[in-house]
Amino acid sequence: MRVNQFSHVKMRRPGPGNIAVNALLVLCLVGCFGPSLVSSITVNTPPELHASKGDIVTLSCTFTSTSRPTSKMSVDWSYRPQSGGPPLTFFHFSSRAFPPNDGQFAGRIRWEGIPARGEASILLVNATLKDNGTYTCSVRNPPDVHGSPTSHTVLTVTPKAPSVRFSDVAVLLAFILLPSAIITLILIGRMLCPKKQRSQSKAYRSPIEVTEGEEYGIHPPGAKEKGTSCCDLYLMDSEDEDGYYSLKKRPPMDEGYAESQL
After folding, report:
1. Residue pLDDT, tens place only, 132-188
2. Host H or E run for residue 238
3. Would strands 150-158 and 48-52 be described as parallel, antiparallel, or unpaired?
4. 240 to each of 196, 213, 229, 236, how far by Cα in Å?
5. pTM for this prediction
6. pLDDT score for 26
C-alpha cells in the first residue's frame, strides 16, 4: 500500500486580507496604465499673439485625438481679462457653431475650425484694446477623456501706428511747398535781373534843374528814348512807377506849339 507523500500538506484558502491586497494591486495597475491603454486628447495653441487695433486675429487651436471626431465632439473658447477675474465662455461648438449674441464679442467671432483635420480655430474681427487677456481652447471628443484637453494663449492688442493719408499730403503741398516754390522763384528773379543803380545826384531833381524841352516831355534831337525793360519795371520803386505812368498819360505836344513857346 502506497502512502501519499503529500498527504500531510494541507490546502489553504486565501484569507480576507489577501483578497483586499490583490484587489488594491489591480486597481493601481488599472489607474496607472488605464489612461494610456484607453484614449487621450492633446490641445495646442500658441502661447502669445500680438495684433493691432482693428485687425482680424486668428485664435489658432489644434488637437490630436486617438479617436476619430464624432458628433459628440465639442469645442469651447473662454476669455479672462488682463485685469483678472473668472474666465467667461463666449463660444461653443457642437455639431455646429454657437457664436455669442451679446456681450463683448457679439458679432465679432467666426468659426474657422475643421474637426476632421483637428482644427478648432476661431477669428476675432475688429480687435480692440479691451480684448487683451488670456484665451482658453477646450476640446472634448468622447471617449477621449484624458490627456491635455485645454490650452491657453495670451493676446496683446496695441494701438495702430498713424498712417499718412492722401488728403494730408495734399494739404502739406498746398500750404507749405507751394508758397516756398513761389518765394524761390521771386529770389531767382531778383538774382537774374540787374539791380537798378542810380547816382545820388539823380535821386532827386528840383523843378529848376529841369532842362528846356524836358518840361514839356520833348527830348532833344538825336537822343533816343530808352525803352523800359521787364527788369526795370520789376525793380522800379513806387515813386518811379508814379512818374512813369503819369508820363505815359500826359498828352503828346506837337512841335509847332513847342516852337511858339520859344
Report:
1. 999 999 999 988 867 889 999 999 999 987 765 656 667 767 778 778 888 888 888
2. helix 238-249
3. parallel
4. 11, 20, 14, 6
5. 0.52
6. 53
Residues in the chain: 262
Rounded distance between C-alpha atoms, residue 253 and residue 259, angstroms: 11
Residue 49 CB partners (closer than 8 Å, separation 6+): 57, 59, 153, 154, 155, 156
The single residue listed with the C-alpha cell 511747398 is 177
Q: In what order do the strands lie in the sheet with 41-44?
A: 62-65, 41-44, 147-148
Answer for the pair 55, 123: CB distance below 8 angstroms, yes or no. no
Q: Using CA atoms, how far apart are residues 108 and 4, in angstroms rounded to an integer?
A: 88
- Beta strands of 37-98 (E only): which ranges? 41-44, 48-52, 57-59, 62-65, 74-81, 88-94, 96-98
With left for phi above 0 and alpha for psi between -120 and 50, is residue 103 left, alpha or beta? left
Phi-psi region of 156 (alpha: psi -120 to 50; beta: other; left: phi over 0): beta
d(C-alpha 141, C-alpha 261), whole Å = 126
Q: How far apart are CA 111 and CA 121, in angstroms?
A: 7
- β-strand pairing of 88-94 with 74-81: antiparallel
pLDDT digits (tens, 9 = 90+) for 63-107: 999 888 888 999 999 999 998 889 999 999 999 999 999 999 999
How far apart are the C-alpha atoms of 66 and 142, rounded to whole Å? Answer: 10
